[in-house]
Design goal:
alpha+beta, 25 helices, five-stranded mixed β-sheet, Transcription Factor, Stat-4, 742 residues, four-stranded antiparallel β-sheet, Glutathione S-transferase Yfyf (Class Pi), Chain A, domain 2, Immunoglobulin-like
Length: 742
């Protein structure tokens, strides 16, 4: 089943997450129509290879053209229209930057895998549960309801102001009419009655003025209370969800809803401001003793302006944190002289602001960092916000060509920094702009979450560990001295984040059993880790007992191994991976001989091994573990083929494959058959001849086990021998001769 078919079968709450990352950058119609073709291409490799990306973009447009031909024959007018629009959009958007479309599609496919992995996890972790609290959802609904009620109140007040204006015009007309009469006429009974009527009308005017000012005051108070409490909490919650999403957690939605609330509140405040201006206009035409307008209006206007200033300041947010397109799973880690992207949004979406706000990006503005390293930003660092680049029409700006460059330091301290010093330094990307609207001038500033600057890609793993620890441990957006004294982290939450690293990076998260093994490795004991606090040093700085590497370096090497060499097997769930030798033998001891499981090496970085159970002639159970395979050996032979072709020579016996059943009882070929690169019977016999007269050869992994050993003795893996030659040898030579040859 294709990945897209699996996505379509998800529950609605997961489908809503999928919907969030498909827009005009990569329309969902194309994902749906070209699902099989899209999934068969290596978009991740193309995101770092311009020539490959160019070819893929051309092929993508060809695929769209073929779909256009098909739907044209079916006379599907709506689909024809959409495909023509999409083709034009793709060609115009990515013609000069084909790697960008590769990055986008690669990110979309990765997010699909992460969501599929999350959907397959039976239990939510404590961190994810806290982000999806029912109290938070209820507050979101309350905010939207209150904003709508405020908007209605402001519109109703508009009608009151209009009624007041009409009433004052009538009063003004009748008053001026009386004033124009001769003195004799003014003494008539009718005129005196008219004067009494005018006095009553003035009393009504006074009452209505007070009423309108009171209603305006209530609207302002409701906006103030909403902004001070629920809306502020909503914004802080969204920023926290963004932090967690950056380190692999659930996608953070809700920004469009916040934009709607901010925009409606801004519209309501500007509406109130116009009402106060209208009252000032009415004041210039008519005032009297006890008039409430000159007393109350200045205070109300000052409060409105204050609320507008605060609303605009809070509405300027970093929608997408800084990230190198070459490492989309590692946001906030930036390499010098490598481009990164970052996107900002103004949550107050007013047409008058389109292309009127210019945003400037700087680094480490007005802040001190923990080292003497200083940086500048190269590239286009000033751009205008607009509503045209975003699929949802939000008022945003995306910087795509910024590069951090390290300034030369005369202090010469750079070379004296320890191995962890650079990756524990936090820096800040700042953004500033100015909004001029309806006579108001508002200066806006915001900053990215702290970023780590590296100068060599080898620093990336430890830099990413710093990003994980920071965003897990604090919701402070600008604590650049955090690693001067990093706090401990709840182990239960850290394990959840580690599972996210696997679900987001390699498409499948970790089970509770796998997490238990990691907990034991981190703490050195079997514990109930719900209340356990783990130190930063244990996670990333101290070597594991008896090893020359840290826990994080060990885990990162496993992630890299999975991603590059055994990804399909990991996604299928056939790699138990994280299991100790003791637990491994406990699981296998009662199983059928030939049952095996796959686990990651605890002593070798980026290694995977397999252990199988066997039974001796006396009935005793024995276990065999092969020397771990690392990325070098797996580059020569796919792991599935190793499992298929693996042979063991036991003393004087004929070589045979001891691997029969994947734990607990899955026939090996049933589990891995679809991943074999070719079938053994497809290899030519010696008599067939090969290319240019040579017999085709393949690598066969072979191990030799001595009688007094339960472990393969320094296996000579990947022996260059063709299956057909090996079969002939077995037919004509004794096992002793074969053994000596091996």
């Amino acid at each position: 089943m294709s990945q897209w078919s699996q996505v379509q079968q998800l529950e609605m709450k997961f489908l809503e997450q999928v919907d969030q990352f498909y827009d005009d950058n990569f329309p969902m119609e194309i994902r749906h129509l070209l699902a099989q073709w899209i999934e068969s291409q290596d978009w991740e490799a193309a995101s770092n290879n311009e020539a490959m990306a160019t070819i893929l973009l051309q092929n993508l447009l060809i695929q769209v053209d073929e779909q256009l031909d098909r739907v044209s024959q079916e006379k599907n007018l709506l689909l024809i229209h959409n495909l023509k629009r999409i083709r034009k959009l793709l060609q115009g958007k990515y013609h000069g930057n084909p790697m960008h479309v590769a990055v986008i599609i690669s990110n979309c496919l990765r997010e699909e895998r992460r969501i599929l992995a999350a959907a397959s996890m039976p239990v939510q972790g404590p961190l994810e549960k806290s982000l999806q609290n029912s109290v938070v959802s209820e507050r979101q609904r309350n905010v939207e309801h209150k904003v709508s009620a405020i908007k209605n109140s402001a519109q109703m007040t508009d009608q009151d102001v209009k009624y007041l204006e009409d009433l004052q015009e009538e009063f003004d007309f009748r008053y001026k009419t009386i004033q124009s009469l001769e003195q004799n006429d003014k003494n008539s009974v009718l005129i005196k009655q008219e004067m009494l009527a005018l006095q009553a009308m003035l009393n009504t005017l006074d009452y209505k003025r007070k009423e309108v000012l009171s209603k305006i005051g209530r609207v302002i108070h409701e906006i103030d209370m909403l902004m001070s409490n629920m809306l502020t909490e909503e914004l802080l919650d969204w920023k926290r969800r963004q932090q967690i999403a950056c380190i692999g957690g659930p996608l953070h939605g809700g920004l469009d809803q916040l934009q709607n609330c901010f925009t409606l509140l801004a519209e309501s405040l500007f509406q109130v401001r116009r009402q106060l201006e209208k009252l000032d206009e009415l004041l210039t035409r008519l005032t009297y003793d006890g008039d409430p307008i000159p007393v109350q209006r200045p205070q109300l206007l000052e409060k409105v302006n204050f609320l507008l200033y605060n609303l605009f300041r809070n509405s300027f947010v970093v929608e997408r944190q800084p990230c190198m397109p070459t490492h989309p799973q590692r946001p906030m880690v930036l390499k010098t002289l490598i481009q990164f992207t970052v996107k900002l949004r103004l949550l107050i979406k007013l047409p008058e602001l389109n292309y009127q706000i210019r945003v400037k990006a700087t680094i480490d503005k007005n802040v001190s960092t923990v080292s003497n390293r200083r940086f500048v930003l190269c590239g286009t660092h000033v751009k205008a916000m607009n509503m045209d680049e975003s699929a949802n029409g939000s008022l945003s700006v995306e910087f795509r060509h910024l590069q951090p460059k390290e300034m030369k330091s005369s202090a010469g301290s750079k070379g004296n920094e320890g191995p962890h010093m650079v990756t524990e330094e936090l820096h800040s990307i700042s953004f500033e702009t100015q909004v001029c609207l309806y006579g108001l001038t508002i200066n806006l500033e915001t900053s990215s979450l702290p970023v780590v600057m590296i100068s060599n890609v080898s620093q990336l793993p430890n830099a990413w560990a710093s990003i994980i620890w920071y965003n897990l441990s604090t919701n402070d957006p600008q604590n650049l001295s955090f690693f001067n004294n990093p706090p401990a982290a709840p182990l239960s939450q850290l394990l959840e984040v580690l599972s996210w690293q696997f679900s987001s990076y390699v498409g499948r998260g970790l089970s509770s059993e796998q997490l238990n093994m990691l907990a034991e490795k981190l703490t050195g004991q079997q514990i109930s880790y719900n209340d356990y606090q783990l130190s930063w040093a244990k996670f990333c700085k101290e070597h594991l007992p008896g090893k020359s590497f840290t826990f994080w370096v060990w885990l990162e090497a496993i992630l890299d191994l999975i991603k590059k060499h055994i990804l399909p097997l990991w996604i299928d769930g056939y790699i138990m991976g994280f299991v100790s030798k003791e637990k491994e033998r406990l699981l296998l001891k009662d199983k059928t001989p030939g049952t095996f499981l796959l686990r990651f090496s605890e002593s070798n970085l980026g290694g995977i091994t397999f252990t199988w159970v066997d039974q001796l002639e006396n009935g005793d159970v024995t276990f065999h573990s092969v020397e771990p395979y690392n990325k070098g050996r797996l580059s020569a032979l796919p792991f599935a083929d190793i499992l298929r072709d693996y042979k063991v020579i036991m003393a004087d016996n004929v070589p045979e494959n001891p691997l029969k059943y994947l734990y607990p009882d899955i026939p090996k070929d049933k589990a891995f058959g679809k991943h074999y690169s070719c079938q053994p019977n497809e290899v030519s016999k010696p008599s067939d001849g090969g290319g240019k007269g040579y017999v085709p050869s393949v690598f066969i992994p072979v191990s030799k086990i001595l009688n007094d050993s339960t472990e393969p003795h320094s296996p000579s893996d990947l022996l260059p021998m063709s299956p057909s030659v090996y079969a002939v040898l077995r037919e004509h030579l004794s096992p002793t001769v074969i053994e000596s040859a091996v």
